[in-house]
Structures are given as structure tokens and as C-alpha cells.
Please model this.
Amino acid sequence: MTTIEVHGLTKRYGPQTVVDDVSFTVGSGQVTGFLGPNGAGKSTTMRMILGLAAPDRGSVTIGGRRYGDLPVPLTEVGALLDAGAVHGSRKAYEHLLALAVSNGLPRRRVHEVLARTGLEDVAGKRAGGFSLGMRQRLGIAAALLGEPEVLIFDEPVNGLDPEGIRWVRGFMRSLAREGRTVLVSSHLMNEMVETADHVIVIGRGRLLADTGIGELMRADGDGTVLLRTPDREAFALRLTAAGAAVREGSESALVVSGMTSGEIGKLAAYDGIVLTELTPQRPSLEDIFMAMTRDSLDYQGTAA
Amino acid sequence: MSSLAASSDVTFAHTVRAEWVKFRSLRSTWYALACLLAVGLGITALTMDHVGQEYAAMTAAERRDWDPTSLSLRSHLVAQLVIGALGTLVVTSEYATGLIRTSLIATPSRHRVLAAKLVVTAGVAVVVSQALMFAAFFIGQGLLAAQGVPNAGLGDPGVLSAVAGAGLYLSAIGLLAVGLGTITRATAGAFATLVGIVFLVPSLAPLFPSWLQWLLDFWPGAGATAIVATVPDPAYPHPWLNFAGMCLGVAAVLAAAFVVLRRRDV
Model:
């Protein structure tokens, strides 16, 4: 199984350290989300993984080798950095053919990836007339040409419509199910809930988290419980007496912290109190992400 | 998992073939080549019409230096811009679209990518330049003959080497443009530099200090272009040496292009 190993990666542009001593491993058979606000260093890190930018310190290996040392790169790593990176007056088929030929891949692969990304009908059309969603598919088709074990996508859903987002998301999942190593960057946290198994979060070039999605939510998820009952006052007192903190929520709900929903439910049953709603409140990934990256934003807006 | 992973190493031939696919699959390539022939031959036809009258007004001394071969090859002045634009775009169109990243991901060996671009450009430039210069020669001589003005045949002394030399000069300019495109990474910058080299420098040459004048002996548009003449120019007794000097200059620019491409992040 091929993994991406990043060790102490550092990149400076002039006085600014864009990527600062970042280390992580991207495992196979899962989608790894690579998260951070705009300008956090995600794209630079990806460019260093692909040998496009040279690190000032540290190293990146893919299956133990530097990218530049891969004998037939497209059969090991597929990448989509920028969907706009096609010559507008070149036909989709020719664009893919040039890439296939450069790595000695058979012509049939071009037809196969066109079919897999649903682009057969526009294969003979010039890429300049493609919608963003179609360009995104063309970029993904290019990444799949060599049937690589490792796939790297930079912001693949950026600017897509809901249907396109759904397609890309499903596609990432299916690639991971096939046992491939999938690294996907995004600045949208909630996007990752649906797609990623594992997340790597960076901000201002530093590694902030490297953890499973589930653990990330649990870690910050001591959480609260929202409940509704006809006997608000009485039950609020009962809960406080049992050691929980209770405050008023919106629309006459109660927000309880310090007890789990299970404990609250048992207490209500014991006292014979009717509960019309009992919902554990989890902080959204967006909240966790914002809390984590707040200190690492380049420019912060002030609340109006 | 992948049956493709077993395929053998990527060779330089793969890279050249990929560059050829990229080159031939752009409409602009074919427009530029059509434009090259149309402009080159059009200018030959137009200028030939004019020189017939000029010859009639010449003195006997001037008629001794009459060089019908060189006159018919004058269109190289404009053709070099078209072939320069073509060479520039081979590199800069990839930077303009961001395709260069995709290309270098597919072929991480950067010197191989640039070398393949040079092979493709050289192959096309040599064929097209020779075709253009030979066509210009024959059309030009035909028009001169129609006006009853002395004209040259391919077998006359120095004629074949002048015509072939003009073609080689154009090819060298095409390769120079690939180098300039790689160094500047921008179409406008590379093209402006090329125009500066082939037009601006020769016309500003009289203003240069004397210790720089030797450079002009090897400069395109100056000494290096002496190969298109069949009547010896006393300033350039060995025009092929001057041309070789220019080729060394082009090689130096290409060497710089290889170095910066290897060093820079993309």
C-alpha cells in the first residue's frame, strides 16, 4: 500500500514561512481531508509533494521515493491541482492523449478515463468551451490515466454546483474504497464531513490537527443536550439538583450541560416527566475548525 | 492493483511524442504556419515587383552588386517574427494556462521536457523554414525573369548555400524563441525581447560603444544574416563563421533556459 510521508516540510518565500515544519502521513484506503483557511499553505504543500516546488527543509516521499524518482509517475500518482490548467483550444481527447503518451500509457486508457468521468460525448470538443464542472472532470480524468495508487486533489469542489459537488464527493469515496490513497484539500470543513475519513488541519503553515473525523468531533464534543418538556420549571430544578447546568434555549427549550442525554432520559422517566424533545447537541465541524484556525488566519474580519 | 504499473520506464522518445501531440493539436500552430507561408511568400511577391523598376534606374556600378538571390530571400525579416512567435508559444502557452504544472507532474524531469520541446520545434522549424525560403527563392526569381531583370538559378555560385542558410537562420530564431519563452515565462515578454534582438539592436548598433561592435558581427539581423547574400560583403568575408557565432549565442540562451527551468518552482 502506498502512503505519502511528509517529514519536517518547510517552505519560505522571502521573509514569510508558508509551510512550517509540517509532518504527516497519508494512509491508503481512505480519503484524507487536507484542511485550512485560504493561504494556510495547502497548495504549497501539495506542490512540494509533487516535486513542483522545492522545500527549504524536510522531505516528502511517496511509497518511500521522492516524486522525481518515480520511473512512470502517472502510474503511481495522479493529481489535479487546477481545473483551469488546460489549453482552451485543445480538445479534451488530445489533452489526455498527450499526457498518456508522455508516460507510455496505451491509448485505450484515454477512452477508459473519459468513460469513467462521463466525458465521452465531449471528448472531441475544445476544453475552452467546458463548464467548470466539466473541466473538473477532465482534470480528474487526467489524474486517473495511469490507474495510480495515490490521488491528490486540490480544492476539487471549489466553484462547483451541488450536483457537481455530489459527484466529486462520491467519486473520492469510490477511489478510497478501491484501496487507493486519496488526499483532498479544502477550505470548507463541512464539505469534509461527507467525504473524509481522516483530516489534517493546517493554519499559517503549521500542523494543527492530524486525526480521524470521529475523534475530532468527540475531542471537542463534551457538548450539550437540548430538551423540551411541558414541565419546564420543575424539570429544570430537578436537573440542577442532579448536578447539571441548565440555561434557557430558544423557543422555550432547555439547554443542559454536564449530563448526557441518556442520564437526562432516565431522570425524566424516574420522575414521570414527559419529554417532547431530547437532542444531543454536537458542535459542528465548522465550529471546531473555526476555533482551531482562529489564531492562524492571515486576515480576520471583525464582527459587525 | 494496476496492470499499467508494470510498464517500462519513460524514455525521451515518449516525451518527444507527447510534445508533438501537444504541438499538432492546437489550431494556433496551423494558423501560425499558414500565416508564415502566406506572409513570407506574399512579401516576396510584393517586393519583387518593386525591385524590377529599381534595377532599371541603376548605374553600371550598382548593377555589379545586383544580388537577385538575397532580394528574393528578404521575406526572412518578417518570417522570423512568425516563427519566433511559434517557438515562444511552445513554452509560454503552458505557463499562461497553468498546463506547465500538469506537464511537469507527468514528466518530472524538467530538462527532458524542454529538450523535447526543442526537438519538436527544431523539426518543424527546419522543414517549414527550408520550404519557405526555397519557395520564396523560386517565386522571386520567376518574377524577376518575368520583368526581364537578371536573376539567379539554384546552380549559380553561392545560391544554394544562401537559400539553405536563410532557412537555417529562421530555424535558429525559432529555437532562440523557445529559450526566451522558458526564461521569461510570458508570451509578451519573450516576444518583445525577440523583436528587440532581431530589429532594435541592429538598428541602434551605430550608437553602441566601439568595444561592443564585435558582437554585431554575430548578431541576427546584422553579421549573422550575411549568409543570405551571394555577392560577398567586404565586412563579412566568412558569413558562415558569423552565423556559427550566432548559433553559439542561441546555445548560450538555451543553456540558461535549462538552468532556470530546473531551479525555479512552478
Notes: The interface with chain A takes residues 1-5, 7-11, 14-15, 17-19, 21-22, 25-28, 93-94, 97-99, 101-109, 265-266 of chain B (CB under 8 Å). Residues 9-263 of chain B form one domain.
